Amino acid sequence: MARALPRGFFGKVEGMSATQDVQAVPESWAPALGPVLATPEARRLGGWLKAEEAAGKVIYPPRGTRLRALELTPLDQVRVVILGQDPYHGPGQAHGLSFSVQEGVKVPPSLVNIYKELATDCGVVAPGHGNLEHWARQGVLLLNNALTVEAGQAGSHQKRGWEAITDAAVAAVAAKAEPCVFMLWGSHAKKKALSVPGLMESHHLVLTAPHPSPLSAYQGFFGCGHFSRANAFLAEHGRGTIDW
C-alpha cells in the first residue's frame, strides 16, 4: 500500500497519465514522513524540482525511482542503515539506493572498496555488478541524504529540502523498538545520524568508519569489520543475519 504525496511533489513519472503524476510514499513510512512532506519546505522542493526539469536540466535518478530505498525496505523491516550523501550523477548510475548502481553500469570506486572490505571481513566474493537491491530487500536501508542530483553536478541538490525528509526517515528507524545497526561511513553520514538525540546511548549498534572513497578508504574503512559486526549483533538479538 502507498499513500499519495502532495500533487506534483516528485514530478510526472514518465509513461504515466496526467491524473497519475503523483509519487507515493510507502505506507510503512507514511506516519513518519507524512508530516514533513506536508510542510512548505517540502512543497518548495517539489516546485523547484519541477522547475529544474522544465528548464531542461537532467535530474538523477529518474522519476519514479527516487523513493526506491523506502519502497524496497519498509520501516518495519529495517535491520541495517547505510547512509550516503547524494545519488551518483553520471548517466544510468543512480536508481534510488545509496552506493548502488544498476546492472550493466561500471561499479564505482567507493563500491569497489565496499566489496573489498566485505571480501576481507566475511569472505564474500563480489558479484559482477553494483546493484545492491538484494541488500535492500533484506532490510538494509540504503538511504542518501539528498534523493536527487543534477547530471554531472555532485551535491547540487544538497540543502534544497531533502534533508528534512531523510532526517525524518533516520529518526523513525532510531525510534524502532527492535535493535538495528547504523553503519556510518564518513563525517557526513556520522553527523546526520548522530543528530538524532540519544542514538549513541540507545539499544541500537552504531558503527563508524571513514568513507569508502579511494581518498579515505585506507584511513580506517578497510579493516573496520562492519559487515561481520552487524551480523553478529543482529544474530545476538534474534534478528537473523544479512546475506551480504
From TrEMBL:
Broadest EC class assigned to this enzyme: hydrolase
Give the E.C. number(s): 3.2.2.27
What GO cellular component term, any one, is given?
Answer: cytoplasm
Q: Which SUPFAM superfamilies match?
A: Uracil-DNA glycosylase-like
Subcellular location(s) per record: Cytoplasm
Active-site positions on this chain: 86 (proton acceptor)
Q: Which reaction does it catalyse?
A: Hydrolyzes single-stranded DNA or mismatched double-stranded DNA and polynucleotides, releasing free uracil
Kindly state a single biological-process term from the GO annotations of this entry.
Answer: base-excision repair, AP site formation via deaminated base removal
Q: What is its main location?
A: cytoplasm
Tell me, what is one Gene Ontology molecular-function annotation carried by this entry? uracil DNA N-glycosylase activity
Q: Which Gene3D superfamilies match?
A: Uracil-DNA glycosylase-like domain (3.40.470.10)
Entries under InterPro entries matching the protein? UDG_fam1, Ura-DNA_Glyclase_AS, Uracil-DNA_glycosylase-like, Uracil-DNA_glycosylase-like_sf
Pfam families, A to Z: UDG (PF03167)
**Key words of the record:** Cytoplasm, DNA damage, DNA repair, Glycosidase, Hydrolase
Residues in Uracil-DNA glycosylase-like domain copies: 71-234
**Does the keyword Flavoprotein feature in the UniProt annotation?**
no
Q: Which domain of life is it from?
A: Bacteria
Q: Which family does it belong to?
A: Belongs to the uracil-DNA glycosylase (UDG) superfamily. UNG family.
Identification of the protein by name: Uracil-DNA glycosylase
Q: Where does this protein come from, organism-wise?
A: Novosphingobium resinovorum
Q: What is the lineage of its organism?
A: Bacteria, Pseudomonadati, Pseudomonadota, Alphaproteobacteria, Sphingomonadales
